[in-house]
Amino acid sequence: MELEQAMEERTRELQNLNAKLEAEIRERSLVEQQLLQDKVYLQYLLSGHERDRQLIAYEIHDGVVQGLTAAMMHLETAPGQIDQVRIDTALRILRGSVAEARRVMKGLSPPLLEDIGVIAAIEGMLEEQMPESCEIEFEHDVQFDRLLPLLECTIYRVVQESVANIMRHSQARHAKISLQEAGERLVLSVVDDGIGFDAVGAAASGFGLKGIAERAKLFDVEAKIDSRPGAGTRVTIDFPLIRANQDFDKWASISGNLGAAKRV
After folding, report:
1. How far apart are CA 169 and CA 164, in angstroms?
2. How confident is the model at residue 264 (pLDDT cuts 50, 70, 90)?
3. 3-class DSSP state for residue 224?
4. Contact between residue 229 and residue 173 where contact means Cβ atoms under 8 Å apart
């Protein structure tokens, strides 16, 4: 009898110990999973930061550097041959370059994007930059509250660069920006009725278009740029929907795909 009681008591002790061990294993597994998610998130932010530095260089090259170069060309004439027309032209270009530099610097950390999200940030940008010669419409149909910060920044930058291209090059009278949530995807498109261009040739030489393409690659997707002379331009990117503080599996999947691509 005493032996049976001792065995039963020992069995209960072992069961309790086993339950504690299982609880510790579950807790450790959750901690490891969270650490892995944090690691993936940090790696992706660092990757995005490095890519962002390159993209900012694209913007500076396209806007500021080209303007300064043009102004220098107007002023670098033989001594005594600079007329007032050349001076006025150079000053106009320099003023434009200064304005472009301020736009780039302000765009480095748009407060609306950090405070209340990408929709309000795009609306604010359009209010400030709406050109008189072109009407730009912004249409959005989304259900998300906030997106992952890197995704919000990427969408904002693509729209910003597209609007800059419309203002600088397109001669468009109308343009439309659309952001649509469709299931687990976010479809961004920017369409204008401008003069268009040779999309193949421009994609190989234009830093602005390279920047848009590189931003899309951050999420393992492609920026589709459709244009031809006289037929306007359409930029379309089909992003994965990655909500803020959620969807870590999507992050891990995208990060893994990009890592594999880099190794190849």
Report:
1. 8
2. very low
3. strand
4. no
Question: What is the Cα–Cα distance from 43 to 149, expressed in whole angstroms?
Answer: 14
Residue-wise pLDDT for 131-155, tens only, equals 677 899 999 999 998 998 888 988 9
Q: How many domains is the chain partitioned into structurally?
A: 1
Residue whose C-alpha is closest to residue 211's, from 227, 197, 225, 198? 225
Q: Minimal CA–CA distance to 42: which of 252, 264, 258? A: 252
41: containing domain: 32-263
d(CA 58, CA 50): 13
Contact in structure between 219 and 261 (CB atoms under 8 Å): no
Q: What CATH number should be reported for the domain holding residue 183?
A: 3.30.565.10
Q: Which stretch of 18-27, 188-197, 198-207, 232-241 has the lowest confidence by average pLDDT? A: 198-207
Say which residues have a Cβ less than 8 Å from residue 172's Cβ, sequence separation at least 6: 134, 166, 192, 193, 194, 195, 232
19: in domain = no
Q: Is residue 144 part of a domain?
A: yes
Q: Report yes or no: 158 and 237 within 8 Å, Cβ to Cβ.
A: yes
In a domain, 9, yes or no: no
CA-derived radius of gyration, the chain? 27
Looking at the predicted structure, is the pLDDT value of residue 55 above 70?
no
Exposure pattern of 6-32 as b/e (b: 16+ CB <10 Å)? eeeeeeeeeeeeeeeeeeeeeeeeeee
Digit-coded pLDDT (tens) for 85-95: 778 887 887 88
**161 touches 258 (CB < 8 A):** no
Contact 41, 248 (CB under 8 A): yes
